[in-house]
Design a protein that fits this description.
- This protein is α/β, with parallel strands linked by helices.
- It is built from 5 helices and 9 strands.
Length: 180
């Protein structure tokens, strides 16, 4: 069961990957810091692409931390994203039959054998909650999904931005409002 993995990039994803400032590496193969904003139409799989980039980096760079922040406070949506992520991870890693990638999940955190972690969080619904985003973490990759819909986007960015390492990557992807 579950969705079929998408193994091809659409034109918008290819353009982003060709021109991005974030998720790059230097001649030494180490990350080079940078950030991008993706203003996108619906259904171009930008969220899936950024999650796949986090997945790749977590496998490639041991002991790194990635944080994806979503606009919802609904645990069911974040659980759904994590379930889809784990399904993709199993395909990406080519895990042996019978291996359950769900054992890599601890709450809203995926723990990789490399020591890397990917955290999934809500942007919160108040300034008080938003100000605590990423507190106590050093983040190598920050993914802000649908930031336009955050209750307190400036507070989330201020808090999460402080956690971003010097060579960290940040991507904010969002669909512009259709009602303006």
């Amino acid at each position: 069961g579950g969705p079929l993995p998408v193994n091809d990039l659409n034109p918008m994803q290819r353009e982003f990957l060709a021109n991005r400032a974030s998720w790059r590496t230097g001649p030494d193969g180490q990350p080079v810091g940078g950030s991008d904003v993706i203003l996108k139409p619906r259904r171009v799989r930008a969220t899936s692409m950024v999650l796949a980039m986090c997945m790749y980096a977590a496998c490639r760079y041991p002991n790194t931390v990635y944080l994806s922040i979503f606009q919802t406070k609904a645990k069911t949506l974040i659980d759904s994203v994590i379930d889809q992520y784990l399904f993709g991870l199993a395909s990406f890693l080519g895990v042996p039959e019978g291996y359950d990638v769900a054992q890599m999940r601890v709450g809203n955190i995926i723990r990789y054998p490399s020591g890397s972690r990917h955290l999934f969080a809500s942007a919160g619904s108040s300034k008080r909650v938003s100000r605590t985003t990423a507190r106590g973490h050093r983040v190598d990759g920050l993914h802000l999904s649908e930031a336009r819909a955050y209750a307190e986007p400036e507070e989330v960015w201020a808090a999460a931005g402080k956690a971003l390492s010097a060579n960290g990557w940040a991507v904010c992807e969002s669909t512009p409002s259709a009602d303006r």
